[in-house]
């Protein structure tokens, strides 16, 4: 007998086909899906939303990913590199405003000078904040040695998106050379997973050539790697990138948004205790995008605390929200209205990780 949508939601273990059915939910069925993911989220990780102050360190990048606005070959952007003083000013903001965590994200450079710079910054940040801020790094593929050094110097978490866990699709959205090897990326993720980092990954949703089956495989991949945290968002076309040529093949933007919410919900059902971020790309589509993602199962938001004068240059995709510095960066009132609380002053470490390391 054919399983109904409600039957599938009651199952303990979801098959790949079940996941595909959930991701294909229409607006009526999606209400059942979101109700289920919210129930699981409240039971396993509660109603808190943790903050990560996001610092976009530099848009100088050695890679040429075919979707990304800060790719090396893009000559239409102004490259910048924050000074240590600028970084520390943002860090101080996060510290004084009780964020408890920050993310340092950067274009990808795999060289000694960059590795050293991050080391020095970590030491300075730990000193300034007396170890009271947890730090996530998102600085791409690095050697195992570099990952370990950064970890030793105070980085607690590392986010390396796999972008797509399907090799053929990965190869379609990256140049075909050693610098952009799928295997190397998997190896880097595995290397991180072996260390003491809380390890995060993620993908883009609604890419050209991507199928719902690919997305189901991405969720199963996250579970197989036994990841601690995930940041995934809709793919947004960027006019200075080669993938822009395929813009006519894309799902409408609202559909990519809806699909992202369903991905978050299914992931919450599959991995009950991980941290899931409501990413900025959602906010680029709908102004209450992040709140909807929280309701679907996300429990982390990443307010951008990069000095305002640089924000417009970290244009990974178009229409990236650029809040003015006077605007409230944390949508606290809106979250309270839907029953959620900001975890001010709390690290909000991944419960999945804490169990794995018996750190509770
Ligand atoms: N649309 C959406 N997300 C993008 N990223 C890069 N380019 C785009 C785009 N055009 C994401 C990638 C990368 C992260 C920093 O931003 O997943 O890992």
Would you mind describing this structure in some detail?
With 360 residues, the chain is an alpha/beta fold. It has a single domain (12-358), classed as Aldolase class I (TIM Barrel, Alpha-Beta Barrel), CATH 3.20.20. Helix content is 42%, strand content 13%. The chain is built from 15 helices and 11 strands. The protein has helices at residues 5-10, 16-23, 27-44, 84-96, 112-128, 144-152, 167-172, 182-194, 212-225, 253-270, 280-285, 289-296, 308-311, 332-337, 351-356; strands at residues 48-51, 53-58, 101-106, 134-138, 155-159, 198-201, 204-205, 229-234, 275-278, 300-301, 341-342. Strands 1, 2, 3, 4, 5, 6, 7, 8, 9, 10 and 11 form an 11-stranded parallel sheet that branches. Helix 10 links the parallel strand 8 and strand 9. The chain is globular, with a radius of gyration of 19 Å. The model has no long low-confidence stretch (mean pLDDT 94). The structure holds 5'-deoxyadenosine. 5'-deoxyadenosine binds at residues 67-68, 161, 163, 204, 233, 235-236, 238, 281, 316-317.
Which CATH architecture?
Alpha-Beta Barrel
Topology as H/E string? HHHEEHEHEHEHHEEHEHEHHEHHEH
- Average of pLDDT: 94
The CATH top-level class label: Alpha Beta
What is shown here, in short?
The chain has 360 residues and is α/β, with parallel strands linked by helices. The protein is built from 15 helices and eleven strands. 5'-deoxyadenosine binds at residues 67-68, 161, 163, 204, 233, 235-236, 238, 281, 316-317.
Chart the SSEs and their pairings.
Blueprint: H1 5-10, H2 16-23, H3 27-44, E1 48-51, E2 53-58, H4 84-96, E3 101-106, H5 112-128, E4 134-138, H6 144-152, E5 155-159, H7 167-172, H8 182-194, E6 198-201, E7 204-205, H9 212-225, E8 229-234, H10 253-270, E9 275-278, H11 280-285, H12 289-296, E10 300-301, H13 308-311, H14 332-337, E11 341-342, H15 351-356
Parallel strand pairs: 1-10, 1-11, 2-3, 3-4, 4-5, 5-6, 6-8, 7-8, 8-9, 9-10
Bound molecules: 5'-deoxyadenosine.
